[in-house]
Amino acid sequence: MSTLVQEIDAFKERIRLCAQDYSTVSSAEKLERILSIDPQANCVLGLRAFIGHVKPTSKTKELVLYIKWYLDSVTYIKELQENFKTRILRLLEQSSGSKRKKSPPGDTNSKHLQTVADQLKKMMHRLSLLLDKEGPINMKLFSLESEDNSISGYPVHVQALSRLVPDSLHKLKFSAQLATDWLTVEAEKRMESQSKAVIASQPKVTLINQLSQIQYEIKVVEDEFEHVSEELQCLLEREERANAISSENQALEIKLSGLLDKRIDAEHELDDIKALLKTVGSNQAFREKLMQDMRAKRMRYYELESRIRILEYQRAITVEDLCVELEVKPSWIRSTNNLQDKCISLESSLEAKRLERQKLELALKPISDD
Q1: CA angle centred on 48, ends 170 and 36, rounded to 5°
Q2: Are 116 and 181 a contacting pair, CB within 8 Å?
Q3: What is the torsional sign of CA 57, 59, 65, 69?
Q4: What is the pLDDT of residues 12-50, one digit of tens each?
């Protein structure tokens, strides 16, 4: 299998090298110029015909060279596909057996392997449909990953030819990743089979001891997980408190700003009354009315002053609390991240240990029945 792993890695590298030389935008620009000369050059066969009949001129020389490079890329991609089929896919199928038996209930690895094999077969089929006949390109066969908005303004045939190479390389790259997944699942199946074989060969007392030990380990991890979860919850509540203080501070600022505006209005109203008093003359009734208004306005002004002082005091306390929270925030953010990572690690450990316990219980069941 190590040879096959190396084969897949080498295949991925060849795809990478091929992809790095290709520019979808540059390709679209040149292909649009080619199609303006010969509208029939709208597929791979059309491009082959174009270089066969076009007259070499200073205008077409660069385009002919580009088409030859483009066609060489298409040919190389076909060779890569054939290489993948014969040197990788065939060996994968042989290693799994040409006819896989129906998976028993609960055999997730076999089901996963079948899914990977089906995906790989589908990907190879779609790639063959794109490349084999070299005629009009069915853009429905393209993968979403090869979409390029930078060429969306070009004619459809130009977009299709421009995407053919990067899309085919994406399909090959994805196929190589599926091949890696295939090997990974097969390795997991072998380990699982070996584990079952070892368990089945052990005497009952050994299995009971192992089960007792794994149950103890599960209890230890569960206790630690509960403790870490509680710590994490406390830190998350601390974060919520900081957010609440920040929201409260913003609300106080809005209220304070509104009261300050009202105080300014009250000052202006008092100034207006004072100015009128200077001009009222001997009209005593009007003077008395102005004095009553002034007393009412002053009461309103003093009330605003009192409310402003209370809000300023509340805001000062809130700002002080917020400063404390902001000062320690980097510390508890790091702690939160560390605890979250630890929770994930503990959950993963619990899952593995519970799976091991399940295997031991299944292995003990037939022995107990006997």
Answers
A1: 90
A2: yes
A3: negative
A4: 888 888 888 788 888 999 999 999 999 999 999 999 999
Q: What is the pLDDT of residue 370?
A: 47
| Cβ-count burial 120-151 (b if 16+ within 10 Å, e if not) | beebbebbeebbeebeebeeebbbeebebeeb
- What type of residue sits at position 137? I
SS (H, E, C) 229-249: HHHHHHHHHHHHHHHHHHHHH
**What whole-number distance in Å separates Cα of residue 278 and Cα of residue 276?**
5
Taking the chain, what is the end-to-end CA distance rounded to the nearest angstrom? 40
Enter the DSSP assignment of 89. I
**Rounded to whole angstroms, how far apart are CA atoms 241 and 309?**
25
In the chain, the amino acid numbered 3 is T
Chain centroid, CA 355 distance in Å: 29
Domain locations in the chain?
A: 2-200, 212-369
Give the residue among 170, 127, 123, 128 at the shortest CA–CA distance from 147.
170
Residue 246: its pLDDT value, please?
80
Q: State which amino acid sits at residue 320.
A: E
| Cα separation, 172 vs 128, whole angstroms | 11
Question: In whole angstroms, what is the distance from residue 355 CA to residue 358 CA?
Answer: 5
Report how far residue 285's alpha carbon sits from residue 273's, in angstroms, rounded to the nearest whole number. Answer: 15
Distances (CA, A) of 260 to 265, 308, 316: 9, 7, 16
Q: What is the pLDDT of residue 346?
A: 85
Please list, residue by residue across 250-272, b when 16 or more beta carbons sit within 10 angstroms of its beta carbon and e when fewer do. eebeeebeebeebbeebeebbee
| Fold annotation for 212-369 | Helix Hairpins (1.10.287)
What pLDDT is recorded for position 197?
60
C-alpha 135, offset from chain centre: 37
Half-sphere exposure of 94 (CA within 13 A, CB side): 9
DSSP, res 142: S
Which DSSP string do the residues of 21-73 spell out, in sequence order?
T--HHHHHHHHHHHHHH-TT-SSHHHHHHHHHH----TTTHHHHHHHHHHHHH
User: pLDDT below 50 — which residues of the chain?
Assistant: 98-99, 105, 369-370
According to DSSP, residue 150 is labeled G
